[in-house]
Write a structure and sequence with these properties.
181 residues, 52% helix, 16% strand
Length: 181
């Protein structure tokens, strides 16, 4: 996992749980990484999951809710830091369809060893989009939070249903999105 995600998690914890909480949480975690997490660095996924596990204990919220909340937070922060990815669009659907072919391509240019999830799209109607999400990390609740963040950014409600889930043994997580007027 790229250090930028760890940095966003630190920001999320500090903003939502209070100043100094991130360091307190780190002290309770058994991490493979002994140095500070820096944006361009690459770190074990297990370290991120350990920090998240301790965070949900401290916050007293279930993991799916925490991942959704973190996804919304990340989209907001990433869109602020990278407006060139979101500003060309006025609606969430064309932006979402650009993630695999533009955003992930640019991420891989910046970070050679980045391993973003894979997306396949089925564009079945003007107000619908099916996104098939593939990732060894299986962070589909985080993906839900990102979708919520996209809807908030474009001020365009998105109703979605997750039809299949890798956590249930399916090969992909399939999100059926409907863009509401």
């Amino acid at each position: 996992m790229k250090g930028v995600v760890f940095n966003l998690l630190e920001e999320y914890i500090e903003e939502n749980l209070g100043e100094g909480k991130y360091e307190e949480i780190l002290e309770e975690c058994i991490l493979k990484t002994k140095e500070a997490f820096v944006g361009p660095g690459t770190y074990p996924d297990e370290d991120l999951l350990a920090i998240v596990a301790e965070t949900i204990k401290v916050a007293g919220i279930p993991l799916p809710e925490a991942l959704r909340s973190f996804g919304r937070f990340c989209f907001h922060k990433l869109s602020e830091k990278n407006p060139g990815f979101v500003n060309p669009y006025t609606h969430p659907k064309p932006f979402l369809k650009s993630v695999e072919s533009i955003v992930h391509v640019e991420v891989k240019k910046l970070y050679e060893d980045a391993n973003p999830p894979g997306f396949t799209y089925i564009d079945s109607a003007s107000d619908r989009l099916i996104i098939q999400y593939r990732s060894g990390r299986r962070l589909c609740q985080f993906m839900e939070g990102l979708i919520d963040g996209v809807a908030g950014h474009y001020q365009s409600p998105i109703k979605y249903e997750q039809r299949t889930c890798m956590l249930d043994g399916d090969g992909v997580c399939e999100f059926d999105l409907t863009f509401l007027p």
